[in-house]
Amino acid sequence: MKNYNITLLRGDGIGPEIVNEAVKVLDKTADKFGFKVTYTDALLGGCAIDATGVPLPQETIDKCLASDSVLLGAVGGPKWDSQPGSNRPEAGLLGIRGALGLFANLRPAVIFEPLRDASPLRKDIIGDAMDIMIVRELTGGIYFGERGRTDDDGVPAAYDTEKYNVNEIERIGRVAFDMAMKRNKKLTSVDKANVLESSRLWRETMIRLSAEYPEVTLEHLYVDNCAMQLVRNPKQFDVIVTSNIFGDILSDEASMISGSIGMLASASLNSTKLGMYEPIHGSAPDIAGQGIANPLATILSVAMMLRYSLDEPEAADAIEAAAAEVLKTTRTPDIYTEGMKKVSTTEMGDAVCALI
Ligand code: IPM
Ligand code: MG
Question: By alpha-carbon position, which residue is closest to atom 5 of ligand 1?
């Protein structure tokens, strides 16, 4: 029987609660589809700072590298806000992305039919469905460029650098073109090529790459226009590929449009099969420990893990189908509407398991 080793980074806030439910669901699918899962815990973020003084202990990197895949809850919270920038929980997150080489971040923004009313956009704009895949470059650009403090003739100043080389652009471009081939064959590359030199190289590279994918329609949008188009007509998008910082911003916008922020999963992949999977929402310290967090985004992250890292597509399908089904009747408080059954975090995990 296949046995997969998964590192769990439960993290902070609601992280441990939602990871528990995702593990429950993964174990249930393992039983049903005939594989085994072994778990190892490791520390990342605020809990790592409390236990070891740093947000990303070397031991965590070693454990992740030795596993088949990584499941992350969420990191951060007000408790660690006074940490210096380089020792914040977020620095641990950037550190693990870099250490594992997770250059490709897949952030699907989809609307679940039963949650259609949750979108802040009018129905005629949102249409019957919204299904956008944002492919965000995750280990380059301004997040990892040279930064520092300096002074302009005695006036304190600071700088961050946006830099991409062709290899970095090509490898994220290939992920996006391959993704578009599996979907509706439309790719939108987002940049700021009217101003930024790094964006001009980005655009040239995407155009060159498109020769290898004659079936994919490639279009280019400036990031400001893309932000506008996402609320004007989100239906026009299939796959979006963009830089680290633009992807950070646009993926928040797209997830809000879907109205399903508590539902959305994400995958961060490197050039091997190893990936890190996590909900796109944060650690929600305000509701931590109350048993009311929605575990579905983390559960759906497990589905992405099964699809992209573990080659268990049937198990992934089963989880996605169960999550879609459960929403018809059962809701955590964040997505509760009248007539539905209101459940706790663990009850939601149980309800999904029961449908698998
Ligand atoms: C995200 C988050 C992170 C990012 C923060 C917490 C560093 O906003 O995953 O989108 O900016 O990448
Ligand atoms: Mg973000």
Answer: 90
Atom of ligand 1 nearest to the CA of 75: 6
Q: Are strands 265-269 and 104-110 parallel, antiparallel or unpaired?
A: antiparallel
Residue whose CA lies nearest to ligand 1 atom number 6: 90
pLDDT over 90 for what percent of the chain?
92
CB-based contacts of 212, cutoff 8 Å, min separation 6: 177
- Over residues 165-177, the pLDDT tens digits come to 999 999 999 999 9
* Active-site hit among 131, 252, 334, 350: 252
Q: Is the Cβ–Cβ distance between 283 and 77 less than 8 Å?
A: yes
Mutating to test ligand 1, I would choose from 243, 245, 248, 249 the residue with most ligand atoms within 8 A of its C-beta, which is: 248
Task: Give the distance (Å) from ligand 2 centre to CA of residue 253.
Answer: 10
Q: pLDDT tens digits for 304-337?
A: 999 999 999 999 999 999 999 999 999 999 999 9
Residue 333: DSSP 8-state: G
- Classify residue 1 as exposed, middle or buried by CB count within 10 Å of its CB (0-12, 13-18, 19+): exposed
H/E run at residue 176: helix 166-182
Distances (CA, A) of 199 to 103, 164, 209: 17, 9, 15
Domains present along the chain, CATH in parentheses: 1-103+271-356 (3.40.718.10), 120-257 (3.40.718.10)
Catalytic residue selected from 12, 248, 277, 308: 248
Please confirm, yes or no, whether 143 is among the known catalytic residues: yes
| Selection from 288, 323, 336, 273 nearest residue 108 by Cα | 323
Tens of pLDDT along 219-262?
Answer: 999 999 999 999 999 999 999 999 999 999 999 999 999 887 88
Minimum-distance ligand 1 atom for the alpha carbon of 93 = 7
3-state helix, strand, coil split of the chain in percent (to 5) is 45, 20, 30
